[in-house]
Amino acid sequence: MTASEPHEQRLTEFLASEAHGLTATVVGGRVAPPVVLLARAHRAFAVAGLVSTVLVDHASPAREAYGLGVVLADEACAVLDPVVGPELIAAYRADLRRGEAGRLAQLAELDLTFHARIGEPVIDDAMVTLAAALCDVLDSVVANERALPGQRSAARVVAGQAHELWAQYGGDAGGW
């Protein structure tokens, strides 16, 4: 991966794609079941946590929101793990295995090194978009009376973390 590769995806594009995939409500021509939405949410939290980790290590200026983003994402994944289960976590790559975490970390570092200007909130804005999509999906599971009680309960818990992540990255300008 080099800065001169024009076809290389930018971090902001990756995060926008994740937000779009998170909010897709149809799977195989049918409305996605709540547990699938929670598997997607797990993946989005894993992505947010990894990006936050890279931002903690490399962003200038450093912000408290980045470290809090790591904690919120880790806690949310821990809540969702038993509800989603290992099969769906693997099926939706919600644990960022198969080298995906390394590729995403490289993408984030590349963006911070070559594309982002000091103090430019572009990555923060993309994280706000991802967190807003998380909020929407989790709120829909909480409101879904067909969801199992454990699914709704987990969604309610992690929705609070998604809303806090959204706020910390500047969704309400609260992180600044």
Low-confidence stretches: 1-7
Q: What share of residues is helical?
A: over 70%
**Outline type:** globular
What integer is the average pLDDT?
A: 82
| Order of strands in the sheet with most strands | 1-2
Strand content: under 5%
**First-residue to last-residue Cα separation:** 32 Å
Order of helices and strands: HEEHHHHH
- Outline the biggest β-sheet: 2 strands, antiparallel
CA gyration radius, whole angstroms? 16 Å
- The number of helices is 6
Structural class, from helix and strand content? mainly alpha
Number of E-type strands: 2
What topology emerges from the helices and strands here?
Elements: H1 11-23, E1 26-27, E2 30-31, H2 34-58, H3 64-91, H4 100-115, H5 122-143, H6 149-168
Antiparallel strand pairs: 1-2
Helix pairs in contact: 1-2, 1-5, 2-3, 2-4, 2-5, 2-6, 3-6, 5-6
Describe the structure in your own words.
The protein has 176 residues and is mostly helical. Helices cover 70% and strands 2% of the residues. It has 6 helices and 2 strands. The protein has helices at residues 11-23, 34-58, 64-91, 100-115, 122-143, 149-168; strands at residues 26-27, 30-31. A two-stranded antiparallel sheet has the order 1-2. A hairpin with a 2-residue loop joins strand 1 and strand 2 (30-31). Helix 2 (34-58) packs across helix 4. The longest helix has 28 residues, at 64-91.
Short description:
By secondary structure, the chain is mainly alpha-helical.
Key features of this structure:
disordered N terminus; two-stranded antiparallel sheet; mainly alpha; about 180 residues; 2 strands
